[in-house]
Amino acid sequence: MNPATAAPLGKDLVGLENMSAEQLTAILDTAEPFKEISERRIKKVPVLRGKTIVNLFFEASTRTRISFEFAEKRLSADTVNISASGSSVVKGETLVDTARNLEAMRIDMVVMRHGASGAAQFLADRIPSNVVNAGDGRHEHPTQGLLDLLTIRDHRGKIEGLKVCIVGDILHSRVARSNIYGLLALGAEVAVCGPPTLLPVATDELGVQVFTHIDDAIRWADVLNVLRLQLERMEGGYVPSLREYNRVWGVTNARLEAAERDLLVLHPGPMNRGVEIDSDVADGPHSVILNQVTNGVAVRMAVLYLLAGGQPERAEAAKEGGEG
Amino acid sequence: MSDKLLLKGGRVVDPSQSLDGTLDVLLAGGHIAEVGAGIDAAEDARVVDCAGLVVTPGLIDVHVHLREPGEEHKETIATGAAAAAAGGFTAVCAMPNTDPPIDDPAAVGYVAAEGRRAGAARVYPVGCISVGRAGGRLALVGEMVEAGAVAITDDGSPVMDSGLMRLALDYAKAFGIPVADHPEDLGLSAAGHMNEGIVSTRLGLPGKPNASEDIHIVRDLLLAELTGGHIHLQHVSTRFGVEAIRQGKARGVRVTAEASPHHLVLNEEAVNGYRTEAKMNPPLRTARDVEAVRAGLADGTLDTIATDHAPHHYDEKEAAFAEAPNGVVGLETALGVVLTKVVGEGVIDLSTMVERMSCAPARAFNLPGGSLAVGGPADVTVFDAEARWTVDPKAFRSKSRNTPFAGWELQGRPRLTVVGGRIVFEG
């Protein structure tokens, strides 16, 4: 195959690990022309006309599911939503059967969120349709990683050389893993900061720095990506109380003001105001949290377009029906 | 029909008698009748030409799961015993974590009877340590031994209560049986699905740290020392665990221990891609741990190679990693894997392999066999150490196919398995 016209992604988007800087940049660049679609009065282009996409959500999700759905609809795909949140369906054998049934209905793409790490790979290995991982357990959430990259690039003009610290519950976070892989591939310096009970083992072997004090992290970083602290972590005994978490690791205006540079603050949502992030930070000048949400739709359009065989350099033309 | 069998001209390797040479072995009346050079075949004896083959005391696996009663879709005593014979094993010890568990003499008798009925490898029942394998009260140990149990264990689960383990080690002394333990502190590992380390971090899977195994190994050694009982540590997988056992032996603790073929040749990287056929408990550890297990096998810290044969139906393994059960089958690949990857790579020699797979298991569990001494049971394994073959799970006698070795090119495979003078497998 001619590398110039080869699809920049393979069949699936399972994770950002093992993705090259060129591939990541191609996705981010492809997202650029798609941003404008959402600003139109009639937010619809024929890029994926005739494609059937199943949004298969085994775990509750509002933001990610809606973002994918908007991306699909604005590209004119036909979509079906399957929400299977609850306990009885999160079984492996159901996943096998679900995969076979979807395959039998001759669909084109599956966007899946699942509580088990590896579920996206599992599905991708078993069906010929394109699989997009919308979050698998604590493994990866690649489109969140991509939209974070795009948002950082929008505001700082580059990724390379930036110091980005991911703050909070790294252990259970698929967002953290996708961010780490994507940022490292694009040449950023990456650190994590959080309670030692919520940092995975061997984090340093991933090539990231580790801070346990938030003030040290803020002093070091150009960008903070603040993760949600799930209430279950307190119940699981990882941190004694949310109040204590806020006191020790919370990102507050007072802490940001002590920093010598103008930090960019991201948060994948949904936020626990007053726990991992204070409202004056979330709503303040450092925050690009709503830009992330807007970029999420564009990035997901880009991923769907590329997986469907689209070429990055033809995205602009495809939008206008040139390659419908 | 005669019951005489003459195994002619093979390389006889029997460390129990320091034998290694081209000899004949005559079996008669279910016993070893004669071992020597140039034995004349009696007219009524069946003669098997063993030239170019290796003849050893029958291989014994002290750790298998035959799943019956209760999970016959994975394995039965009959299919498990047949798989054992096809793997060159003349005897296996069946773990009691069935449904219901083997925790009383009637259940032990059932396993023994089904084992005899299978007519393949001998099946020795192992009873539970605790009633219902629930970790509470001591099971009917004495009556289970009378019914044929050769050891006790709650394997599949550790004994979390140190007080119960002390009682078991003390009480078992009266019956001369080992107490086998699956060493694992569940407080550290219950949520885990693989080794805790860089691979689990990358895959986003909760891990089981080495310490979860090490803590119980050390505890068991201390309790064996306290009671004078015999602790048998199952499937040792950690470098610290190996060293702790080495030190325990040096100070006279009555301890025997196992290494499993998968822990001798695979490390945690085998899990990459969420391969459920590489999921077992204890998990595959790091390359450093594998080196330590190999060194422990070489210097005798780990006495036996035991497969921990753990069949699971493909439906159960065809799942997201966290949903899949622990365990791999091992009976039909153990000899080939050990010959190719352990003996073949110079970790131990052939004679030591026979020691670890036949003589030592017999001694550890006080079983007949493990020797070609005249008068002993006519349990003999004959294998071709040179034959090359490719592991094809579809060809297994076992009901299950969950092996991490599918497609591996191995050198060495069983040719003849003889139990009580009767050929139970010919390959």
At a glance:
The complex is a heterodimer of chains A (about 325) and B (about 425). Chain A has about 325 residues and is an alpha/beta fold.
What can you see in these coordinates?
The complex is a heterodimer of chains A (324) and B (427). By secondary structure, chain A is an alpha/beta fold. Chain A has helices at 21-35, 63-74, 92-104, 119-124, 142-156, 174-185, 214-220, 231-235, 242-249, 253-258, 279-282, 289-307, 315-319; strands at residues 52-57, 78-83, 109-114, 130-136, 163-167, 189-193, 209-211, 223-226, 264-266. In chain A, strands 7-6-5-8-9 form a 5-stranded parallel beta sheet. A 4-stranded parallel beta sheet of chain A has the order 2-1-3-4. In chain A, helix 1 (21-35) crosses helix 12 (289-307) and helix 2 packs across helix 12 (289-307). Mean pLDDT of chain A is 91; it is low at 1-5. Chain B has helices at residues 77-86, 105-118, 141-146, 162-172, 186-189, 198-203, 210-227, 239-250, 261-265, 287-299, 314-317, 334-343, 350-364, and strands at residues 5-14, 19-28, 31-36, 46-49, 54-57, 59-64, 89-94, 122-125, 152-153, 179-181, 194-195, 207-208, 231-233, 255-259, 304-305, 380-390, 409-419, 422-426. The longest helix of chain B has 18 residues, at 210-227. Chain B has 2 domains: 5-55 and 377-426, Urease, subunit C, domain 1 (Roll); 58-364, TIM Barrel. The A-B interface holds A 17, 90-93, 95-96, 114, 116-119, 121-122, 136-140, 174, 177, 200-203, 205-206 and B 196-198, 200-205, 207, 209, 273-274, 315-316, 318-324.
